[in-house]
């Protein structure tokens, strides 16, 4: 199976057409009817033409979860026909490949996820990675609980992809910069430029590139030296690390400065007023979030802060200074009652 993701269904169509040959069946799930009717529509076709179509009902809880549950019987039916050797699953625009791949690996051993392909728009890529617009504001949320933003979805789709198809490359003023940006976000990926008609210039399916363990490790929450790529053409990735904890109030006050110029950052941080907790740090565009990962005592690591940040036109020294200013000072380390510090993140952690 090839999983196909990407925000633009228009740009995905020529890529999808290039994937379908005599041995391939395609399942395309769309979400145009989701806001109005609460359904995801699907169609099945192969090289000979349309085969079937229908829809999945989606409730008010988790559209992504219901999509996965509804897809499994359809996929089982196609497999039982024993007519094709390859399935292309084109996910809805707001769907990430990771939950789909994880479910398929866990529940359908008869399907081998072969390649995860993501189509990105060269004209809009930096804008999509840099803003704070919610999917819901664009009518793309997969249900009311979906509070992701466009930047978060775009980054996650890229980070899990074995192949990134750079559509509209001929309309971009700096295609090499975009190629470089994609590799900074995911060094595992192969970047393939599409021609003016949207057709990829190299194979993008049946490549045998998907490695579940590697994909999961890269999409995880940890930050490390292996995430660093050589800076070039205005794209920079920075590793920031400290063995001192962050002052929660100063971190909260500095959030806008931290994400300024950063399209994506991930890592693990240590808040002074939560000395035993490992906290996940993540930002995409102008949005940043913290989440709990467990206790430091449950790992082999001493408590520390480690963040990897990627940006276009990013000033590493400025970012380092902003983050350093959020740390407890030497005198605070010695004199402060850490537990008594105000907790601006109490409502989210």
Strand content: 25-35%
Q: Main beta sheet: strand number and arrangement?
A: 8 strands, mixed
- Name the CATH architecture of the largest domain: 3-Layer(aba) Sandwich
Q: Termini, distance in Å?
A: 38 Å
Number of domains: 2
Element-level helix/strand string: EHEHEEHEHEHHEHEHEHHEEEEHH
Computed Rg: 22 Å
- Determine the CATH superfamily of the largest domain: P-loop containing nucleotide triphosphate hydrolases
Strand segment tally: 13
How would you sum up this structure in a few lines?
This protein has helices spanning 9-19, 34-37, 63-80, 97-107, 125-130, 150-159, 175-185, 212-219, 248-253, 255-259, 316-324, 330-335; strands spanning 2-5, 24-30, 39-46, 49-57, 86-90, 115-121, 163-167, 190-193, 235-242, 264-269, 277-284, 287-295, 305-312. With 349 residues, it is α/β, with parallel strands linked by helices.
